[in-house]
Every structure is written in C-alpha cells, then in structure tokens.
C-alpha cells in the first residue's frame, strides 16, 4: 500500500506555511485595527492599484471565495474604509476603491507588515531570499497566477 508523507508533500507544506505566515501577519492588523484576513486582502488589493476594481477581481487576485470577499467589502464599507464607484457606462456595475480613511489605515499598516515580513524571512540569507522568490515565481507561473502589480492591473477595471 502506497503512503503519502504529508511533511514531504509540497502542497501540504505550502498550505501550512501560507496559513502560518498569514496568521503571523494578521497579528499586525487584527488586534490594532480590527481587520480580519479577508478584509486585509481587500485593502491590500485596492492599495497597490491606482484605479478602482471589482470585487470579482479581488476574489480572483487573492484566490479568496467571492462570498468571503463580499462580506469583507460590506464590513469595510460599514467602517467607511472602502466605497463603491459607479460605472458611467453601465450603472448596474460598480467598482471599489479605498476611502481617504482606508488609505490612511493602509499607509499606517505597510511599514508594520514589511517589518513582519522581514522578521519571517530573516532566517534566510539575502541570496536565499532571492532564490526563494524566484522559485515561488516559477511555481506561480506554472499555475498561471498573476505575479506582478502591472499584470494584476490589466484585468481589474470594470
């Protein structure tokens, strides 16, 4: 009978690593700002973009279920961190963007999250960090995942 050693199975290891890193980062925004992980994903996606984008785009970019993103958007709108923008050509459609309050919160979070990322990655040398990023990129490429801000922006408008 064939057996699978989960601790050597790359998908299991990546999933476990992603969950731990996400939890470690969430400590930076959950207690202080009351954001959960899906809410942060919405703000993070809106934060790197110059233009408004759809909730569907955020779900696609973050690989988060659309209902989870919808609940996060509703919560962020209630806190006046995100707002809807109507499509001038089709009033049934709308996009999302951060409010001034949302952008201010995002700007306060960025240095904290970058510092936390540095702490997490500090077990690697500079060369190892570059190699790790390159290898992640190869895997992302093989799975057809968006890897760069400029690529993410191509499909995100209305």
Largest sheet: 2 strands, antiparallel
Low-confidence runs of at least 5 consecutive residues: none
**Strand composition percent:** 5-15%
CATH architecture name: Orthogonal Bundle
CATH class: Mainly Alpha
Structural class: mainly alpha
Query: If you compute it from the alpha carbons, what radius of gyration comes out, rounded to the nearest whole angstrom?
Result: 18 Å
The count of helical stretches stands at 7
Q: Count the domains.
A: 1
What spatial order of strands do you see in the largest sheet? Answer: 1-2
Secondary structure layout plus pairing:
Blueprint: H1 10-33, H2 37-47, H3 55-62, H4 66-78, E1 82-86, E2 94-98, H5 100-121, H6 126-142, H7 149-152
Antiparallel strand pairs: 1-2
What does this protein structure show overall?
The chain has 158 residues and is mostly helical. The chain has a single domain (6-155), classed as Winged helix-like DNA-binding domain superfamily/Winged helix DNA-binding domain (Arc Repressor Mutant, subunit A, Orthogonal Bundle), CATH 1.10.10.10. Helices cover 63% and strands 6% of the residues. It has helices at residues 10-33, 37-47, 55-62, 66-78, 100-121, 126-142, 149-152, and strands at residues 82-86, 94-98. The chain has a two-stranded antiparallel ribbon. Helix 3 (55-62) crosses helix 4. The chain is globular. The termini are far apart. The mean pLDDT is 90.
What can be said about this structure in brief?
The protein has 158 residues and is mainly α. The protein contains seven helices and two strands; from the N terminus they run ααααββααα.
């Amino acid at each position: 009978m064939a057996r699978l050693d989960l601790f050597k199975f790359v998908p299991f290891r990546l999933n476990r690593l992603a969950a731990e890193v996400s939890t470690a980062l969430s400590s930076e925004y959950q207690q202080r700002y009351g954001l959960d992980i899906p809410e942060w994903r919405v703000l993070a996606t809106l934060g790197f973009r110059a233009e408004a984008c759809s909730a569907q785009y955020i779900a696609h970019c973050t690989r988060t279920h659309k209902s989870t993103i919808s609940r996060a958007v509703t919560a962020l709108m209630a806190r006046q961190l995100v707002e809807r923008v109507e499509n001038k050509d089709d009033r049934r459609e709308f996009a999302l963007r951060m409010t001034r309050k949302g952008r201010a919160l995002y700007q306060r979070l960025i240095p904290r999250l970058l510092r936390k990322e540095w702490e997490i990655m500090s077990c690697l040398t500079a060369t190892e960090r570059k190699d790790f990023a390159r290898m992640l990129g190869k895997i992302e490429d093989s799975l057809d995942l968006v890897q760069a801000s400029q690529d993410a922006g191509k499909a995100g408008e209305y």
